[in-house]
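Submission sheet (multi-component)
Chains listed below:
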Amino acid sequence: MSAPSTGGASRDGYGAALLNLADDPRVVVIEADLGKSTKSCLFRELYPERTISLGIAEQNMVLVAAGLASCGKVPFASTFAIFTERAFEQVRNGIARPGLVAHICGSHGGIHTGTDGSSAQSIEDLALYRTIPGMTVMHPSDDLSATKLTEQLLNHPNPSYTRTARNKTPRIYDEDTVKSIQIGKGSVLKEGNDVAIIAIGVMVHKALEAAENLRSDGIDATVVDMHTIKPLDKGLLDQLATSVSGIVTVEDHSVIGGLGSAVSEYLSENNPTIIRKIGVEDRFGESGDSEELLTLVGLTVESIETAARAML
Amino acid sequence: MEGTEVSVQSLENVAKICRRSIVDMIHKAGAGHPGGSLSAIDLIVGLYGTQLNVDSNNPDSSQRDRFIMSKGHASPAVYAILKEHDFLNQSDLDGFRSLGSVCQGHVDMKWTNGVDFSAGSLGMGLSFGIGTAFAAKMDGLDYQTWVMLGDGETQEGQIWEGFMAASYHNLDNLHVIIDRNRIQNDDFVNVQMEIGDVASKVEAFGWSVKEIDGHDMEAVVEALQWSMDTPGPSAVVAHTIKGKGVSFMEDNPSFHGKAPNDAELKMAMEELV
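Outcome: structure written.
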């Protein structure tokens, strides 16, 4: 177990948020063995009386969360993103369907998870949870925004799924800029009139880097951190669709059902726009380090630039 | 209800009224699960009549006892008892399974006053009950959580995750009743996948277990009190007869999930007097 480090992974931000929320006695943390990995261990260490260890049993964990929520608690349950999927039906039928408010965090999401290999690299979690009525679905881009968004779940009216990442990525926000982040509102990190790059999670910093490179070629790109993919910031999408030549979506997630799909579904019916989706094509990952794997599946700064140029 | 002397005979009378309600509402709806409702109803009547601290005037009280009906297809049994305890009325029961009705096909806390859990997908109720039992302990409240499971339902792996977790955490405010009626959707349990000596299995997971005849009201009442008096989590395995009380439904797998037709309704009602 390690304390959140400067410029930590988004999972560190989740752990920090739980500590910040601890003053509210309704907050209960639930673990299925992987608290050291998801960082709920930080809460457990200080508040063992409000932490429930349920062993390697995710289905049970999700319904225990539901039962607690029915009694007025605000449960935060976490495990690896991929293992939350084992309890997908429990989230659907046990939490969301009766309108209970419990929060699931899936850490180690995406190909970026790295050397553990494809069994641990969830690339479909966002797609799955997005289909559940009333579910809020988020994937923060750094530790600071993960903290802020998790804190906002305390009085959030809906159940949620938040994916965090195992590995550190450059910080997108600082203590000041992160203050304006809000569930359901895309964060415009950079403004430009030529193209828009809408990214999520560990790909946001690559989107910013691509935008810098494009700028040196005289191309102005807007960059958005769409940390909440449900509810989607439709107002921002409408605005972008009418002001740029095209939109590139970027995610460490399957191109089927994730951010790119969400943006395409909305804009194709409401504000038809040229969209290019960059994500994991219809395949599984493998072992390797994060950067090697992102390169293997085409999640690179160069591929973002190429897609953006093709819009003009 | 708790602490009030209730005679076994009066509970048996309530059970008979509930059996009539069950058969009637399923017939009206043209669909539903009579077999598992009729096997469970004596247990449910005993529970509501002697243990469960609930009040239709204050259905959301944070201090109420919880009844988690995990075998949610036996919803008619729950609606029948909720009517006897003034949570529902006859017109609610008449709407069973119809659009907009508070009596949904499977019990649903979002729709029905007095229902504490949204069931329908087997295997989940025990875990939910662990959550409510934990909440009671965290809040220093002494309400009890009662979970009813079907025997076929114990084929679900999640049930055993729950049994393991509850004894590990010593949830002495959690009580399970298993309706051992030996029939599931497709056929007899021992044909589909026999669960065997379920009492010993639950015991092996660290629970205290008592086996009873689930249609002997005196034994039911005693067993529920035994569960209250037993330290740690405790389970009552109630041996029951699917479709109990209606001769042609008894021990008959085809009435797991089938409504009686008009002639069958008439025959059933003639028996349930």
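Remark: The mean pLDDT of chain A is 96.
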